[in-house]
Write a structure and sequence with these properties.
By secondary structure, the protein is α+β, with helices and mostly antiparallel strands. Helices cover about 30% and strands about 30% of the residues. The protein has 8 helices and 11 strands. A hairpin with a 3-residue loop joins β1 and β2. α1 packs across α3 and α2 packs across α3. The longest helix is centred in the first third of the chain and has 13 residues.
Amino acid sequence: MHDEMEIMDKLIADMEAGIYEPDDKLPSENDLARLFKVPRMTARKAYEKLQDLGYVYSRQGKGSFVRDQHQRIPLLFSGNESFSRKMIHMGYDYQSRNIFCDPIEYNHKVYKALEAQPEERVFRIGRLRLIDNRPIAIHASYVAESMFPDIGRTGRDITSMFDFYRGKGYTGFESMKTLLSVTYPGRKERELLACTSLIPLLVVETGCLDSQTNKPLEYTRIMYRSDYFTYEL
C-alpha cells in the first residue's frame, strides 16, 4: 500500500525529469488513486501537500497543474544596493509596507552588533516586502536610538532603511558578516506571508555599516519565502 509521501516523491521526480512540464495537467485524483492503489483521499492529500510546497497549483473543477519552478525571483546577496532598489531595477511590481516600529528587550547579539550599551534603547523596524501584491519577505532592521535619536518617532514611516540613512547624510554602505539559516513559519509569519507551515523560510542575518566611519547603522534579520526565490551568492 502506498502512502501520500510515495505519491509525492514520484510526482516530484517526474516533474524534475521533464515528464511533466510547467502548466501540464497532472493525473486526476481518481487516476492517481487507481495507479497507486490507494483511497482517493490519499491522492487528494498528496496534491494538497504538493500545492503547499509550491510544486503544483489547482484550477477549480479542472484539476492540478505543474507550477513553473523557474519563474522565481533572483535573490542577490552581494553588493551594497538596497533590496527595494534591486527589485525595482529588475522590473518587478514591488511594494514595501511598514508593519511595526517598537523598542526591543535587551538582546546580546543585537546590541553587540550595534555597539550599543545595555541601558540604550534599540528599535526594531519591520517591513513587509511584496511583489505583484504577494508577500515574499519580512525585513526587520534593528537601530540604536543613540545613533538615530528620532527613530522612535519616525520609524513607522520608513519603508526603505537605505533611503532613511541617505536622508541622514550617509551615502556609502558596507555589509557585516552574513549568517544564513532555515526555519519554518510560526503563526505570525504564516499570517504575514500568507503561507502554510510547510514552506521553509530562508533567514538572513547581517548588518549595515557606514563605509566612511565603519559605524554600525543597523542589524538586520530577513525571512524570505523560499518558494519564491532563486539564490545567487
